[in-house]
Amino acid sequence: MHTDRKTLTPLKIGELTVEKPIIQGGMGVGVSRSNLAGAVAAEGGIGIISTAQIGYDEEGFEKDQAGCNRIAIRKHIHRAKEIAEGKGLVGVNIMVALKHYKEHVQEAVRAGADVIISGAGLPMDLPKLVGNNKTKIAPIVSSRRATQLILKMWAHRYNRTADFIVIEGPKAGGHLGFSRDQLENLETLDYDHEIREIIACKAPYEEKYGTKIPVIVAGGIFDRADIDHMTELGADGVQIASRFVATEECDASDAYKNAYINAKKKDIQIIQSPVGMPGRALRNEFIKELEIARKPITKCYNCLEKCEPRSVPYCITKALIDAVRGDVENGLVFCGENVDRIQKMTTVHELMQELCYGIGS
């Protein structure tokens, strides 16, 4: 047990403050909904709900995905806030690549989301969609170039800047803003340098708008030592996803959680997603079969803006729903680079104690 750690500095986002500068990453479909996000917020962090096909288990989803997703966004934000009991913050992760991106943003704002984090594409219109509401907004970026582009465009078009920035590194799970070559040769990337560059390029906008733009770093962050390293690079907080899957409160099935706990390094694979981006997932029967032939799509779930069902290798909605429900061999199980280091089931409270204070690590 290590108790000599410095206390982590609370995270300030505008007028909002959270005691613990830890954001639980948004994981879809259905992996992080109200149960997980509410538990993280209750511990003084920021709990994030993924809106990607969030209503998959709502009655009527097979016929009306868009309507069920809107109902579920509202329901899970309200439920997470009830679980949090006024502590921490509750927000959503909304992928730019979604067909109903605009509706998801507007529904989250109406439901009282504290923050919206947006990636899987460049969220150029996010300020317009949120308007003058109090919901805080953050783009997910993986490069200095993308950061500069977004901050410049938001300033030019909407005369505003990001409330915070999430830098997602190459060791993250799910969809990634890197080439397959970069992801398969991680040792050649000096990503610490890129993080410093991204942090540096926000300074003119902080000066212009008289505000601090906190930077959160995500991707492969496993323990308190990783958090301390990111703080030394200049980060104000971290976003962690994979570790929260192996908690009792996570919204995924036990089979899904056990797939993480039992995963070995050799099981981690870079795949191509119908979103058009590479992703990191656990190698299973589903992925092995994809290497032989595409999986014909018999039903479209209207999830992605740029999806052509006749040509994409598989239906990502069906693959993710099958997995979160427990069919982890025939579904798609996204994961982070350090998933093999997860050895046991824990609780959100125990995990937050370990991350913040080194207790139990």
TrEMBL record:
Q: Which organism is it from?
A: Blautia obeum
Query: What GO molecular function annotation could you give as one example from this UniProt entry?
Result: nitronate monooxygenase activity
Q: What is this protein called?
A: Probable nitronate monooxygenase
Q: Does the keyword Cytoplasm apply?
A: no
UniProt-listed InterPro entries: Aldolase_TIM, NMO
Identify one Pfam family in the record: NMO
- Which residues lie in coiled coils? none
- UniProt keyword annotations, A-Z: Flavoprotein, FMN, Monooxygenase, Oxidoreductase
* Keyword Flavoprotein applies: yes
What the protein does comes down to:
Nitronate monooxygenase that uses molecular oxygen to catalyze the oxidative denitrification of alkyl nitronates. Acts on propionate 3-nitronate (P3N), the presumed physiological substrate. Probably functions in the detoxification of P3N, a metabolic poison produced by plants and fungi as a defense mechanism.
Q: Which CDD domains match?
A: NPD_like (cd04730)
